Amino acid sequence: MIPKTGDSDMATNPAQRSLAIVKASLKHLESLHEAYKDGLEVRTIDYQPFYDSLSDDFVFITRTTVSPHDGDYSRPPWSVVGKEQGKVEMMEAWSGGKGQVDVKEVGQGSLVKWEVGAPLEYFSNAEGTRVVVLLQERYSGFSEWNYGAMVFNVHNGLITRYEHLADMSGYLVETGYLTIA
């Protein structure tokens, strides 16, 4: 359950409140991390806590050093490679509008193709308007781990913006596009 303002167990500090909102919304990622760590097969992904935390006008942006999906290496680093506008649009793009999804139904570029490594690390500014989550990530089938950050804007107890920054340099090395001397 996503904590809401006024819940008796809700932290009174704005930063703590926003951290609790983002942590609860990312429960599906923590579950994926635990499953992969334990070598378990992931059969379903429960996106509903994440969706419940989003504002109706939510914006999702992905920026990477390169997009592993289209192989376009000509883009400048940290270009926007994906954008979803609106909660309903986000739900449709990620899981066909369903809260819980059978892994077999999820398409290319989904969290199933995306593994979460070390436990997530959470940080917030004092006002609780921005939460940054650091993570290790890799695409299934690749051995190199990359580092990433998820930046969330929180307003009135809901996530209004999520920007995912993915350093894909490990992917570039593994595919032979980048050589490190």
Q: What does this molecule look like?
A:
The protein is an alpha+beta fold and 181 residues long. The protein has a single domain, classed as Nuclear Transport Factor 2, Chain: A (Roll), CATH 3.10.450.50. The chain has five helices and nine strands. Strand 7 (130-139) and strand 8 (146-155) form a beta hairpin. The model is unreliable at 1-9 and 104-112 (pLDDT under 50).
Give a topology summary.
Blueprint: H1 14-25, H2 27-37, E1 44-46, H3 48-52, E2 54-64, E3 79-85, H4 87-95, E4 100-102, E5 114-116, E6 121-124, E7 130-139, E8 146-155, E9 158-166, H5 169-174
What's the number of domains?
1
Poorly predicted segments: 1-9, 104-112
Cα(first) to Cα(last) distance is 48 Å
H/E element order: HHEHEEHEEEEEEH
Share in helix: 10-25%
- Mean pLDDT metric: 74
General shape = globular
Number of helices: 5
- Which fold name fills CATH's third level, the topology? Nuclear Transport Factor 2, Chain: A
Give a short account of the largest sheet.
7 strands, mixed
Q: Strand fraction band?
A: 25-35%
Tell me the radius of gyration.
Answer: 17 Å
Second-tier CATH architecture: Roll
Number of strands: 9
CATH domain class name:
Alpha Beta
Indicate the structural class.
Answer: alpha+beta
